[in-house]
Each structure stands twice: as structure tokens, then as C-alpha cells.
Task: inverse folding
């Protein structure tokens, strides 16, 4: 429990005899680097609050990924998905736990103890053992993995080209190392189900994906009005701390949407309206 805020709880990373097991997974059986030290003098004091807020937001979305990937693994198991799918999704759960840990290392180095919201993560779907719940699971799979994980992997890849602060660079590369695969796991699994969807099911999937894309666009600060503009000095400095500004993230989003997501969904037999997510 976080003092003074009943809606949040402190992220706990230790206190049990399982800590070595967790650490071994986080550090990839000893093959991952430890976080480099952070000298707070490397962060301009006026940027520190925004840097903390940005890394705290990232930690929260990674934590949400733990919840969703765990639920998805369990739902796919109940649907009888092949064991190699379940094994791959089990790995995603482990990866997302690692990402929370990595973001927590950055926040700790900035002198902050990470906290999490109690009620932001929606409760998982109530299972009813009917065809509709299977469709809901597959729609959730497409929404989270094919849309969210695919697009955010491109965001991480681009953020890595701009980051300068060593601990932020370490954290982004640890996260990207895993995220690069998560979208592909989603598409490979969706191939088992989506091509057999009826026309009505595909229409519902399209509507859900459209809503997802609008939400993603808004979450990264879009849509931006007007013409592309030069970045401000502060925006460039924030990108150096691992937190690229909205114009950069939106450009990556529109590009990945058009060149990656739309063609891959078309391969699954789901054509999306090209106007979705376009600027302006
Ligand atoms: Fe992640
Ligand atoms: Fe992921």
C-alpha cells in the first residue's frame, strides 16, 4: 500500500525466498548485463520530473502486459491451443515480468520507488465455455499481440536510436530484445483461428482493431494537428532519456501501421480501412 494514495500500491520486488529464481530469469541465466550506474547529474534537473513520469508510465504498461499475457496463456490453454503456442506465451509472461523489473531499476536509480494503480488494469474476461468466448479470446489476442505488441516493438526500436543515457539505453535494449518477438508470436497464433472467422466475426474484429488503433494513437499523444515540425530542444533531450516525444512516436506508428500491420492482417483475411490512424 502506498502511503496517502489508496488507489495505488508499491511494486514489491523481493522479500521472499523466490527472489533468486526471479533474478535468474530477469538476468537471463546470467547472460544479461546488469544496469549501468546512473549519475543523476546526467539528467538536467528540470527534466527529472518528466523523466520519472515517463518511466513510471512505461512500467505501468509493462505491468499491464504481465496481466494480459498471463490471462492470454491461460485462455489459449483452455481452448486447446498447441503446446508450442502455450510455451511461447509462457515465455511472453516471463519477458513482461522482466520488463517491469528493468523499468523499476531505472526508476530506483532516479531515486523513485515505483507504484502501480489498483484499478486501471481491467479484470479479465469471465469465461463462459461458448463460441463467443473463443471469439473474444482471439480478438484479445489480435488486439494485444498483433496490434499493441507489434507496434510498440517498432516504437522501442526507434527509441533505441535516439537514447543517450546509459541506464535508459540498457533498459530499452533489454525490453526490445524480447518485444521484437511478441508480435510475431501473436500473428503465428492468430493464423490458427482468424482465417476461419465468419464475415460477421471479421467485421467485429475490424471494429475492435479500429478502436485499438485510435486508442494507441491517443496514448502516444496523437493525432497531431498541422504539418510536421522540428523537435524542440527539450523533446530531443527527453528522447535521450529514452522517452521520445509524440511527433517521433506518431511517425513510427503511422509507418508501422501501413507497412507492417495492414499487410499482415490482410494475409489473415482481414482488410482494414486504410484511413484508420492516419494523421489529419
Ligand atoms: Fe513488454
Ligand atoms: Fe511484450
Result:
Amino acid at each position: 500500500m502506498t502511503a496517502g494514495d489508496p488507489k495505488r500500491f508499491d511494486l514489491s520486488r523481493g522479500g521472499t525466498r523466490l527472489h533468486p529464481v526471479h533474478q535468474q530469469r530477469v538476468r537471463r541465466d546470467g547472460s544479461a548485463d546488469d544496469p549501468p550506474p546512473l549519475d543523476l547529474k546526467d539528467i538536467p534537473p528540470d527534466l527529472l520530473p518528466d523523466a520519472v513520469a515517463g518511466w513510471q508510465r512505461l512500467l505501468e504498461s509493462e505491468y499491464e502486459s504481465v496481466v494480459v499475457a498471463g490471462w492470454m496463456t491461460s485462455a489459449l490453454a483452455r481452448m486447446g491451443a498447441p503446446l508450442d503456442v502455450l510455451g511461447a506465451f509462457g515465455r511472453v509472461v516471463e519477458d513482461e515480468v522482466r520488463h517491469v523489473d528493468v523499468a523499476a531499476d531505472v526508476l530506483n536509480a532516479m531515486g523513485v520507488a515505483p507504484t502501480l494503480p489498483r484499478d486501471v488494469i481491467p479484470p479479465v474476461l469471465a469465461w463462459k465455455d461458448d463460441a463467443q468466448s473463443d471469439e473474444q479470446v482471439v480478438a484479445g489476442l489480435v488486439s494485444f499481440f498483433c496490434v499493441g505488441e507489434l507496434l510498440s516493438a517498432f516504437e522501442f526500436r526507434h527509441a533505441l536510436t535516439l537514447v543517450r543515457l546509459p541506464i535508459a539505453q540498457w533498459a530499452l535494449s533489454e525490453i526490445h530484445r524480447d518485444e521484437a518477438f511478441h508480435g510475431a508470436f501473436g500473428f503465428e497464433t492468430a493464423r490458427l483461428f482468424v482465417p476461419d472467422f465468419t464475415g460477421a466475426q471479421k467485421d467485429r474484429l475490424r471494429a475492435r482493431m479500429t478502436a485499438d488503433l485510435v486508442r494507441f494513437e491517443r496514448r502516444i499523444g496523437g493525432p497531431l494537428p498541422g504539418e510536421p515540425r522540428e523537435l524542440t530542444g527539450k523533446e530531443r533531450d527527453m528522447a535521450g532519456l529514452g522517452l521520445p516525444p509524440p511527433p517521433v512516436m506518431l511517425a513510427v506508428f503511422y509507418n508501422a501501421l501501413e507497412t507492417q500491420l495492414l499487410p499482415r492482417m490482410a494475409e489473415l483475411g482481414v482488410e482494414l480501412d486504410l484511413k484508420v490512424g492516419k494523421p489529419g
In short: The beta strands are 8-10, 115-117. The pocket of fe (ii) ion (ligand 2) is lined by residues 65, 96, 149, 179, 182 (CB under 6 Å). The two ends are 43 Å apart (CA to CA).
